[in-house]
Amino acid sequence: MHESGLQRAVKKAAERSGIRKRVGFHSFRHSFATHLLESNQDIRTVQEFLGHANVSTTTIYTHVLNCRGISVTSPLDL
Q: Phi and psi of 65, rounded to 5°?
């Protein structure tokens, strides 16, 4: 399957599930990085996984960790 076909499939799935925000592969990448950091992975490890040349690019993902509000548990974690 071509990349554009996968992107269309992700967008259709988001529409069907009622997600109004723009969704794409970057959403998965952002979620992956955030979950790694929430699991106390080292920022340099996350940097390597994401392929960032500069750690300052990776630190963008840490803003989510500083925005603690309501605690949400994923149904997959139950």
A: -70, -25
